[in-house]
Each structure stands twice: as C-alpha cells, then as structure tokens.
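S1.2 Input.
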Amino acid sequence: MNSNVTEPIGQAGESSAQPEAAATILLIEDELVTRTSMAARLRRLGHRVLEAENGLVALDVARRERPDLSIVDWMMPEMDGPTFCETVRRDPLLKSSQLLLMTAHDQPAQIAEGLARGADDFLSKSASKQEIVARVLAGLRASRLVRKLETTGNELESSLLLLKKQQAETEADLQSAAAFVRSILPPQGSPAQGIALAWEYQPSLMLGGDLFGVMAIDADSLGLYILDASGHGVAAALRSASLMTFLRAEHMLQLLGSYDPEKVLTEANQRFPLSVEGEYFTLWVGQLHVPTGRLSYASAGHSGALASLAHGSLRWLTRSSFPLGFDPSAQFPCDYVDLQPGDRLFLLSDGIYEVPSPSGELWGRERFQDVIEGAKRTSLSATIASCFSQARSWQQAQFFSDDAAVVGLELAGGSEGGVNG
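S1.3 Output.
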C-alpha cells in the first residue's frame, strides 16, 4: 500500500481554482477505493482534499497543514481513528481541530466511545450523499467558528500583552512623576531657626492634586501655602504643579515684590481662572515672620490651617471665600495671628478628615481636632502620624479616596530666630 500522502490534481475538465468558501479537508482512510471515491466527492464540493492512509501519517499532515476538517476512518493500521482523535486532543497545536469519525458500525456504544475519545461527530460509511454533504458542512461551520474564536483569542491575548506593557510603562512614568513631585515638596526638619517642620502626604492615586510649600522669603520670613486642585489623578497633579511653579518665592518677589498673602491670592485668581471643564483650585497662603511669630494669612475657598496654641486653645485660620477663578474681582483680605514658642500650625487638606466610615459617617473636623489636642505632648511627626493612623482606622482602609496631607510647623525658639540661609 502506498504510504505517501496524496493531493491529486482535479479531473480533466474540472477547475482547479478554489472557490472563496473552499476549505482544506484531511481524509484519513486506509482503503484506497473508499478514500479515492470520498476525496472525489469532496473535491466536487469545491474543497481542497489531503489524503492519508492511517492516523500516524495523518498527524504529520495535520501539524503541517492544519486542515479545517479531518474525516477519520475508525479501523486503520498503525493508528486507528479513536487513537488519532485522542492524540489530536492532546496536541496544543491541533486540539481545536474538527474531527468527523467515519465508521461502518455506527452503534450507540461505539458512537459514545468515539465521542469520549475526542471525535466531534460521526459519519456512517453507508450515509447518503445528502447526509455526507450535510455533516461535512456542519463540521466546517463549527471549524470556522472555532478558528474565529482562536483568532479573536490570539488577538485579545496580544492586545492584553501590549496593554500590560503600556500599563507597565505608564506605571513607571507615574512613579517617576510622583517621585519628582515629592522631591519638590519642602524638606522636613528645620526651615528656619527655632521652627520645626514635619509632614505626611498620601495622594488618593499615585499622583495627587493637593500640594504644599514652605520656603524662605527673606532673612526673617517663611512663605507657606497649601493648595487643592479639583479632581484626581494625572490631570489634577499637572495643574497643581503649574500652580506650585507660580507660587515659588522668587517668582512672587519678582512679580509682586513681596509674599503678601492677599496679593498672592489676588494675582493667582487672575492667572488661574475657572476652566471650561469646571476645574479650579482652592488655596491657602501664609507668611510667617519668624522673629515675632506673626502669621498673616488669606484663603481662597480652602479649608485652611489649624493653630494649636500652647495655652490650650485651637483656632481655625480661614474665612469664607470663593475658590480661585470664580470671581475675577474677588478680594482675599489678610488675617493675622501671633504665634508663641510652643505653638503649632497645621496646614491640611480636607481629605484627611472627610474620610467616611463603612456606614458613611465622616470622621470630621472635631475628631481631627481631638487627635491634635490629645497629641500635644508628643513630637510633631508623631502627632501627624497619629492623625493618619486614626483616619485610616475610622474608614477601615489603608488608602484614602481623596488626597490627604498634613503639614506641621512648631515654634520652639524665641524672638532671636531667623530663616536659615
């Protein structure tokens, strides 16, 4: 018996061109006459037909050609039909192939065995031409569907891999941006003689829109600010970074000649109008004269700062006002407070106290104040850490839904203090 796989040329007078819907069918049959007859019938239907006389030979053909449908005889030497089906199902390259098992003994028990061993359908050798055509067409429809699913799955997998790569790149970029933002926040320690500075900051996302600054204005004064950009994420962070650049001490001195909070807010109100998308900033600005402890401050819609005074009282340093850009003619008058050695000043975003419990109740300002009051005898950094710890405990979650920042300054020296050069 000839052991070669054959792909006979079409008969004289028949077109060898394949129609658009032509499929590749692998016919596996050891009996030459039956195989030749069946192959001719399939070619007349317009399909490309490959032939093999047993399952062992057919495996090589199937791996090389990946036919749309394999019609497999049950009884064959070397490797019979059910064994061929089992082998195909174990092969990662072929396991989705459509297999039509052909037998002369189409008994229920035999059909059940064939299906259990991997066949998709049965074709009796005594089947009519109409049944043969119908089962072949059904097998090819199933094959097209499976191939389409495979292609879609491969495309989805490729898209997923590409998306993961892009996400990793974006994550790396965001981490770099977040590291840069943190690098331009004020260094903790002592920004001026007799002044201690500590802060904790946790954006709701990797990049946040609540930022702050503590910087030297001149030999005796510190400029302070805390801002909040509406929204979250990259867009809010980029807008906040632009406002931070505007608020730099050297820029304000060049533009305004001073860091007077009222002048700073009035200028910022003109430079940062309400956007078409409704984006805006709230901003609190202060100037601390270190030798005397006098703090001048003004607010544009920001929740402000909290002074914890050594003699025991707490005082919120803010007043009702529009955010930046809502009213071009808005005024932001300065207020003043005289701080004494031992007093503490906390600049904070509302994200630290507007955290909800699992039932929806906000932690609130009063509980925040209780933490500040109760931690007076601890270090400044420990007090701020306690604020974050108790806020997380209240919401029973590690991360905040809004940006959370608390910046603390403590006056520890006397009137001879000045700004560090």
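S1.4 Remarks. The chain has two domains: 24-155, 186-411.
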